[in-house]
């Protein structure tokens, strides 16, 4: 027995003094006399990677999170040595690294201190598993706020919170419960009107403490792996989020139908029930584009099979649903039933594709089919095989999208609800245990699913949705916030979660509208629909254990509210599609919390409820029962009440009256909002007008409209239409300027321009410097005009 306590438990260890350094290209390595190496890599002038090892050498550099297609480059890099520290300078920041202990501090070029190590990097040897528990602590500045970290059911501002990142099947989770389904180890710090970001790219179980344990200290640590983090300098939060999103990647553009309304339940079966649901949507004129089939469509819950008692001819059913505008989306889980007569199991067994325990046998766990084995999606050969399994579902039967669930991975009837930690994974040639692979298992499943759906749905675009995800998953999949509950508290949580996911790189996210567990009242369902139509992913889903949750499950008033708001979403599809285009092109989040929208206004730093949908629509949900209004914060600038067209000056909190069939929605002054006519599904109607709602502003404002063929890949060949619109408002004049890019010719020929808030009576209209008669453009009572889409400048003059 070893009784020497210094050997039994060494406690925290720290780097010692720097004894040498090497500068090669964009990287500088500092070596200490106790074999710690800090490698600093300048990816951009505002993006710096800090990577530590305690072994005297680095292991293979591999990450599932980083988008390897992104090109990085800096403009300026200079290393200087001072008496007590080294200084690395770029064109945006400078970093001082102490010679005595590798502690570092980062400043802007005006010597303003952005971020500073407290203890800095330290570690503890893990005697149970080997390797290190790696730790980092930094000082928190007075008034510093913290945001991000993805799927967290807590306040937007994380100051005073401790959170845990370990993908977990958390059925009916509660406010502040940790951990949840997704792992996004990226946060944004804000103090003194300066924003920065930290991305801790470590797939082990990680923790972040934002001044909870110690008042002025923020820290993060992992149960294994490397201390490997990226520092992102703003100074605007917009810059931080865009850089992080570029670093971890962006999705491709979804087909437009995916941005419509979706209906789901556990489960719709048999076929007659599915058609009853879809027919009712058409009968009630509530738009809907997708119907989902949960696990009961399968034969004994076996993936890639059909229960022929419920669905005797799935290809015929899917085709008939498509004729009525419905796209079919099916669920696929990772657990493969142990059954020697089941072809998927046979193939995986023959190819040795299942995860194994440390001593050799296959990992076995209970999920819906019973005893299952689980594919190792960290093996490229397994991913390729898995992608090929979708041929029948997608190419032959005609399914349009796939929903990955239970992929945390979730295992039933075991204490930790997942794989044992000794399970082995290939990890793309970097073999490891489940401790390292757990948090990325769901992402690699979604990645394999994405490649399969994309292969067989081509030449159309794929749609995949996942419950579990790690940073970078947005390159392959959308997501939702998991098994929520039909409570008012969960409506509040859903609002915050989707905002937080949006600024954490995973913008294509929504919640189960109405709550998955338990049963909402009609009022709660209506209020959730009113919020959900302003989320990038919009789907009602429920467990079905507590009753029905289709819109007609409630009274006529709720049906009408659902129709009204889902129809509004379909009108706003060109606006939403443009939001998505900006997200994939520029990394701009589709939902913007108020602190993101205006970080210099300290009143935004603790706001949870209000958010900006796209760039120009302000939304504030009603989160309490029996509400006849609410207090809300209007950000700085001028905003029109969408329902009344009343103009408000922002930068203040106000009371807004609301009806049951409304929530506070405001439009930024100067905005041009594009609208389609209401369709029951995307592509139902051919129309000859695009409506443009033009909100007058004294001054200038820019708007954009992106359109293409709504599916397929021609947009990547330049066949898209991108309108840059500009309004210039004067006392007696409104000028609308239009510039078009792209080779796509939109099917409509005219714009219907709705004029809102004009402070003058129109006396004259010029199009491209030519005066036009009112009757030729259907100008009516100062409200609207209809013009040919081929114009460059429109002058509306008044008195």
TrEMBL record:
**Residue intervals of the DUF5110 domain:** 689-757
The family classification in the record reads: Belongs to the glycosyl hydrolase 31 family.
Q: Which InterPro entries match?
A: DUF5110, Gal_mutarotase_sf_dom, GH, Glyco_hydro_31_AS, Glyco_hydro_31_C, Glyco_hydro_31_N_dom, Glyco_hydro_31_TIM, Glyco_hydro_b
Q: What is this protein called?
A: Alpha-glucosidase
The highest taxon in the source lineage is Bacteria
Glycoside hydrolase family 31 N-terminal domain boundaries: 38-209
Report the Pfam families cross-referenced here. DUF5110, Gal_mutarotas_2, Glyco_hydro_31_2nd, Glyco_hydro_31_3rd
Q: Does the keyword Hydrolase apply?
A: yes
All copies of the Glycoside hydrolase family 31 TIM barrel domain together span 251-579
The UniProt entry's GO biological process terms, in alphabetical order, are: carbohydrate metabolic process
Residue ranges constituting the Glycosyl hydrolase family 31 C-terminal domain according to the UniProt record: 587-673
Q: What's in the keyword line of the UniProt record?
A: Glycosidase, Hydrolase
Classification from the root reads: Bacteria, Pseudomonadati, Bacteroidota, Flavobacteriia, Flavobacteriales
Organism expressing this protein natively: Flavobacterium phragmitis
Q: Name one GO molecular function term.
A: carbohydrate binding
